[in-house]
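Quick one - first record:
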Amino acid sequence: MVERKKQMTRDKVSRLVNWGHWFAFFNGFLAMIVGARYLSSVGYPETIIGWGYLAISTIGHFSFLAFIVYVVFLFPVTLLLPYSKILRGYAALVATLGLCILLYDTIIFDDYGIHLSPFAFDLAWTDLNALLKSTSYIATPTAIILIELTAANFIWKRIEKLEKKQLGNKAIAFVGICFVSSHLVHIWADASDVTQITRFDDTYPLSYPATARSFMESHGIEGTNIEDNRYQTKSRQLSYPVLPLQCKAPSSTKSQPNILIVSVDGLRADMVNELTMPFLTQYQLDNKQFTDHFSGGNQFKTGMFALFYGLQGNYGDRKEFYHTPPVMTVALDEAGYQQAIFLPEDNQRVFENRSIFDGLFVFTNSSEEGSAQTDMKNVQQFISWSAEQESHWFSMVNLSAPKHYDTPIGFLGIETVKPHIDVKPAQKVLYNQYRQSLFFIDQQLQQLFNHVDDDTVVMITGTHGQIFSSNPSEVNQNLSPGNVKVPFVMHWPKTISDTVSYRTSHYGVVPTIMSQVLHCNNASTDYSSGYSLLQPSEQSWVYIGDSRTFAIYQDAEITVLDRHGKYRIYDIEYKKRLKQKLSAPELIQVMREGRRLYNQ
């Protein structure tokens, strides 16, 4: 009798386990339907290979998630409380909660571009009213739980028929093949740079597709570095500019001023003084100087992207902008400007095979003697080029000696001084060597501007700042004011000298040229994240960095975040960590600005 009861209990549990598997399979299917909302955020595939990968990836991923939920939340209860009515009701509640969380994640992903995490939840909770814009947040869970209860009872009543047809093993095999195949295909796509597949890497929550790159690199095998343009597609419809440009051509080309931007890598705002850079110091006093100016990042890549596009650095990480030229240089070309850029060869490689310099003659130089010698060549080449131009022109001269603490051989510099900031003993040497490099750059600037007339619009700034470290990793990760706050001086023909104390950034360069030189009537938001330098910004924050790590500079604090939602808050001097929560309203604005050009 006892054995019979045990056998009946085992049969009951076995039936419940079998039912649980089918219920999980059904919810995997429902999760796929909800997960289709992610595709409206990132865009649909445009090739057969893209659709094929997406199909097997979706089936494998959401079925796997549903099975994990079953193993964690339902299977233990099946063993402890093997009562079908209780289990069906409990399973319906768990499944409803899971699908509602997934649905909420699709909303978060569509609005902010990130998946749910403690950080994202805090952010979304603050913006809850904007996210949940209707009563659907009440009706939807009600509808889901009704569907779940109906499905739980339907499957339970037909579990014996399903067992007789022996469909379970076939379903498991099918899902398993999809799961494994999606990872194998992704390994190939990652090694071959098939962006039609790899662009979906971050689309689904808790998705970690297998890659081959680390394995290949560890074994000395190089993957294909050539981008597969056959499978490239926009992850989402890009509106850049948002509206067609409306620029007024002048009655005479003679009224079009020449434009020169000089961008110095590693130029700190607090190092421009009479002793270190006497020429630039006097040039500031004679023109319009901006005392609270920020670069777009702490590296050449993000700083230069902000100067040419006027957009946050996270746009620069998107494939669309690899092949989209800046609207500024396109408009300058249409206005008849001759365009050129003079920069070190190493810096040019950063944007190799990208469209940032489309329409410009690119002049590069290098020297085995160092970056200072390269800068001298670039200055001389610009002087020769500008003298040959018979019509109006736009040019950028990029100098990099300060970034490398470099000076020419035999250069007679200036006397060493005590650092004006707190530095370690070893950093004092770098500090004074940096000053020597700035003194050299100051002389190059003087030589350059001896060949530029007063009718030329001139902007002098730093591509990024500088911290005194020989560790490249530390330099690239540091988002302190010393690494991102740069000088900005603007000479505007026939205007008096002035000091601008409100906060400005590199994002304002493009709107200034577009509105003041090209006379474009568009709002700056049609093509930029910034506003004209001649008016205070409407934003209370400045975004600095890229999509991996970035800082939000506000009036009284600096918030540094990474792509996983981890953040640290510092005082405005970056010297003390503050024990306070993230300021969500500003961050919401930042996240939306970083996706705004895909939402039009």
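second record:
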Amino acid sequence: MGSTGVTEGDVDKAMAIVESGRQSLRRDDPAVKALAAAVSVRRRLQGEEAVADDELLAAHDQLHAKMPHRNGGSLEALADVLLGRGIVPLPGDYDGDWWLWWPKKGYGPCRDCRQHRSLTRYSAKWGKPYRYLCARCRKLELAEDSAYLNSVTGVVPDEGESAESLFGRRMAALVSQLDTQAAAAPEKQVARPDADQWGEYVDRLIEVLGSLDWAGWSVPDEYDSDWDAETGPMLFATLWRTGAAMEIEYYPRESRLRFLPYDDVCGDFPESFSVLDGEVEVTVTLRGDEAVTAVHRRVGALGLLDATRVRVVEGADPEAAEAFEAESLLSLFGPAASYREIPVADIVKEAVQHPDLSTYLQWVVGRAGRNVHPDPVPDAAALGIAAWCWRNETAVEAHHLPSDVLMARVNIAVTRAVLPHVCPYEGIDWDGIERSLTDTSWKLPDGRTVSSLFGDGWPAVQSSVREQIRKWQRLDSELLGPDTTLRLMTIGGSTDHTCHWWGQGRWRAICEEIVHDAVEAGFTLPQPYGCRGPAALIDDLENPDMQSDAVLAWLIDMPEASVSGPHGLRHHPATRPLVREYDPWWAAEGT
């Protein structure tokens, strides 16, 4: 490829990308040259210049070889253009890992029908590799898979038979075949679990998924199951939360728990979307708390313990976007309609006209929380109560405490005081919250009372907080009901106002990124962690209110940070919430 078409400006842009990724490379480094070539190709494509397929593919391959990471998204951008031209890797290309940066969805020629259509990177069952198919060909392949199952199992669907019945009969046939195979080679098989063992596996799975259950995910009590003579038993299910979904597979014998993207292959749930783009695996032993902690931290880092943030993909069919918005509105106000036993439309009308709720709906739900899905997440709802019954619409801001460190300590104390009174099953205990947040003897961990921190302003804080809590208590009992109130408070605790607050599911992951960046930059860790090390600091920051003022101040604003970073909690990009996309491929295909 050489340097065809590469300008000094392209090299400058490549160096800027290198420096933004905190890499130290010379202008003549092969990695910089590969990146500059990719920048050149992207520039010319954006200017609608002709770029030959060979040059495009060569730029992609050179960049992958020399700089597969921290390339400013150039590798992904080139892959997207290649897909549009129908140039797609073979399953084993790029060590079989090409799907990690190639787009999940795109537009180009379908692998099977060769028509230019909306495509989805797809891997069905039966061990087939990733490939790009349009919706029509995916459904055709599904039909072919069904025919394959018919031949393998000898089970043909009866007219009008439900999917559950057909699945059960096919599974029974496959189990019978496995029994026959096991009898022929008993020395190679893993013993099939008995009923008690299956029950033990289910109980363990429910235990390690406990944090997801608390965060509003539909963790089932029963699971589909399978068994293999080599890998042993498997449990699997689809977890749902307000239209969002993901697949799980648990292999007890191999101590593996897999979280997988959800794919609505048949289009049965058109307003659904996957919260995962790729596979995540966690080691889960049959016993012990370590696996519970590992799953909690992993799903927390993925944003699955916080409310889902989702936006409709740019260019989506307007009718599909409207249908998605309508489904979200139904998820928010449907429980209130059931609580009041009146139509949803009547509830919505009352809510938008209610003097104590209309502003919250307009500013918090409609603007600050525009992309926040109406999930019932107790921990996020506690942050919402801290934000809108303590910090905002009260006298707290008028009596702002003298330092950000002290304000952070009080914010954490408020969240801790609220958390025990928020339950996904019973709703919000407003009386308990009022008692906790207006108690004159309420103390910080260091023994100082919150009332003493506000001095003469405490009576105003106390009365205004009480007023806000009682307002929401009336809305809860008279208009909204516990479920919708919980969802509204979840949205209130999931805006940019609280994205850097303690109490969210991503908190540990945020602290990990802040500490990691500081160590990479050579910053001095606050004492005593210069000796104890970054791992101990990350562990201890799970309870930041138990740390010294120096540690908490370092976390908020690192004293050694420059304008270019890395930054502390106040400005670190890790605090930006993860946002998923709803891409209604079914609308684009007209199916």
